[in-house]
Specification:
The protein is 72% helix and 0% strand. It is mainly α and 195 residues long. It folds into 2 domains: 38 residues; 138 residues, Orthogonal Bundle (Tetracycline Repressor, domain 2), CATH 1.10.357. Helix 4 packs parallel to helix 8. The longest helix has 23 residues. The N terminus is likely disordered.
Length: 195
């Protein structure tokens, strides 16, 4: 008698979902274990994901982008105040992310290469989504930056990184009070008052 159970084959999305769950559970991303759990070869898994760096960037982006979009939807204010409030909310969430803190502590240099390298797709996307926020406020006539928006966005991202990743960049334990200093710096860059 034939077995009528439907056979389900793993897909690239299954691989991504499983890898993402590993990361969210603060587990080391073991591609061999993921391939075994999915019942695929390592070659197939690599064909799907490209490489571990790209996969890590996609996983972290899948957590970061909704954080930004939620902040943009929920933060009060307009113009400089609004942008600073979004910056604060996003970086506060990044600061409090247990998977991200674990990633930084477990393999700091690798984590920084994924999160903040100029060649990283994740970093480029951070700058891009921040540029979009700034352009939205420029187009509404709410801010008038004194530098190119793309440059301003890049510096804002770097300010956020220096605060939230300070343990890896400067060797000092992250402190939420630094976030308010970072917000003041962003406010000044945007042309607002420091008070």
């Amino acid at each position: 008698m034939a077995d009528n159970k439907p056979s389900t084959r793993a897909t690239p999305m299954d691989a991504f979902a499983l890898a993402r769950q590993y990361w969210l559970d603060c587990q080391k991303l073991n591609l061999g274990a993921i391939a075994e759990e999915l019942g695929v070869s390592r070659a197939t898994l690599f064909r799907w994901i490209g490489n571990k760096d790209l996969l890590m960037g996609e996983i972290i982006w899948s957590a970061y982008k909704p954080t930004v979009l939620t902040a943009r939807q929920n933060c009060p204010g307009e113009g400089v105040d609004y942008v600073v409030n979004v910056f604060r909310a996003v970086n506060h969430a990044v600061f409090g992310s247990a998977p991200l803190r674990h990633f930084l502590q477990a393999d700091g240099q690798y984590a920084l290469s994924i999160l903040s390298s100029r060649s990283s797709t994740f970093h480029a996307r951070m700058v891009e989504i921040n540029t979009d926020l700034l352009m939205q406020e420029v187009d509404k006539g709410m801010i008038n930056p004194s530098m190119k928006v793309e440059s301003l966005s890049y510096f804002m991202v770097r300010i956020g990184e220096s605060c939230t990743f300070s343990e890896m960049i400067m060797g000092q334990k992250p402190d939420l009070s630094q976030l308010e200093d970072a917000c003041t710096a962003v406010r000044i860059l945007l042309g607002g008052s420091s008070s």
